[in-house]
Design brief:
- This protein is an alpha/beta fold.
- It has 2 domains: 182 residues, Isopropylmalate Dehydrogenase (3-Layer(aba) Sandwich); 132 residues, 3-Layer(aba) Sandwich (Isopropylmalate Dehydrogenase).
- Helices cover 40% and strands 23% of the residues.
- It is built from 11 helices and 12 strands.
- The chain has a 10-stranded mixed β-sheet with strand order 2-1-3-12-11-4-5-10-8-9, with helices on both faces.
- Bound molecules: 1,4-dihydronicotinamide adenine dinucleotide (NAI) and magnesium ion (MG).
- The site of magnesium ion has 2 residues, from helix 8.
Length: 339
């Protein structure tokens, strides 16, 4: 049976890694039937809107999407389309696993970061206060975390731990300085943790100490539960532990809708060259297969990626290889025939 899903090629390297991912999903015999829709600069160029109504309608109908990265211009007048999508569909949980496939600086990393995906500083209540003749003499940014939203993401993380056999959750905060904004997050997590006392351990760590510990001894962690901004930052750090942004998938999950994507952005520095590493989005599509219950296909996909990297030694430039995005995808397809 076919599962309709929205496919958003996105910007920069987006179309390149999306094409490679769809190629191997087809080779796998994935159940998805794609509705291609535009967003980001591609949306602006095709219909003058970074989040066209047709794209939103398609996601609303399918409740499932795979999306390439979207460029967010820095400066005024633009709100991130990613942030808008997360708000629009109440995708309150961002799940970002980091798993060593190619041993590099670190080996045997197996971590999952859960990031609160809607609140915190990303509500972007921002403004300037003019002083004298400087209209931007003072910049103000306000973060918002509600107790309900904090408990919701904590419950999501603990449920995820139980379902996936994870044993420990480290709550990351800055409750010593951002006492209200991140204190409420820690408080809510402690409250929820009590319900899971016999199944999942909880500890907490201040974000700066956590950043250092992730470099010194990442193996002490199992799951990280983070506020929005800290989760954004630390998930790139986790990607660094497993070979970089080319290796990091993410899932944006709400109660009824889920959008799967890579952790990385549109990588304008290498866009159009055909050299991007498509693994992040491929692994994200693996999370999407699991989301619809096709653990078998997700497992085959991961095996094919692992064997292409470690048996065929075919890798893109970011992993010190010479393969193009296409060559890498082609060899995964060949590997799939043997699995
Ligand atoms: P970026 O993640 O696009 O790139 C950072 C560095 O990592 C670059 O040197 C890039 O070449 C490299 N890189 C990233 N993905 C790679 C891959 N798959 N293979 C090989 N190398 C890779 O971050 P940056 O430059 O800060 O952001 C560029 C744009 O992307 C911005 O407009 C930003 O707003 C947007 N962005 C979008 C995201 C999304 O749609 N979910 C997430 C993060 C950023
Ligand atoms: Mg980020």
């Amino acid at each position: 049976t076919q599962i309709p899903a929205t496919l958003i090629p996105g910007d920069g390297i987006g179309p390149e890694v999306v094409e490679a991912t769809v190629q191997i999903l087809d080779a796998l015999g994935s159940p998805f039937s794609w509705e291609v829709q535009q967003a980001g600069m591609a949306g602006v160029n095709s219909c003058g809107d970074p989040l066209p109504a047709a794209t939103l309608a398609s996601i609303r109908k399918n409740k499932l999407a795979l999306k390439g990265p979207l460029t967010t211009p820095i400066g005024e007048g633009f709100r991130s389309s990613n942030v808008r999508l997360r708000e629009e569909f109440q995708l309150y949980a961002n799940v970002r696993p980091a798993l060593t496939i190619v041993p590099g600086r670190y080996e045997n990393i197996d971590l999952v970061l859960v990031r609160e995906n809607i609140g915190g500083f990303y509500v972007a209540h921002e403004y300037y206060i003019p002083v004298g003749d400087d209209p931007r003499a003072v910049a103000v940014s306000t973060g918002v975390n509600t107790r309900d939203a904090c408990k919701r993401i904590a419950r999501f993380a603990f449920e995820y731990a139980v379902k996936n056999g994870r044993k420990k959750i480290t709550v990351v905060h800055k409750a010593n300085i951002l006492k209200a904004l991140t204190g409420i997050f820690l408080e809510a997590a402690r409250e929820v943790a009590r319900e899971y006392e016999n199944q999942v351990q909880m500890n907490d760590m201040i974000v700066d100490a956590c950043a250092m510990q992730l470099v010194l001894n990442p193996w002490q962690f199992d799951m990280l539960l983070c506020t929005n901004l800290f989760g954004d930052i630390l998930s790139d750090q986790l990607a660094g532990l497993v070979g970089g942004l080319g290796m990091a998938p993410g899932a944006n999950v709400g109660d009824d809708t889920a959008i799967f994507e890579a952790v990385h952005g549109s990588a304008p520095d290498i866009a159009g060259k055909g050299i991007a590493n498509p693994i992040s989005l491929m692994l994200a599509s693996g999370l999407m297969l699991e989301h619809v219950g096709r653990h078998d296909l997700a497992q085959r996909l991961r095996t094919a990626i692992t064997e292409t990297l470690n048996k065929d030694h075919i890798r893109t430039g970011d992993l010190k290889g010479t393969a193009s995005t296409r060559q890498f995808a082609d060899s995964i397809v060949r590997r799939l025939e043997t699995i």
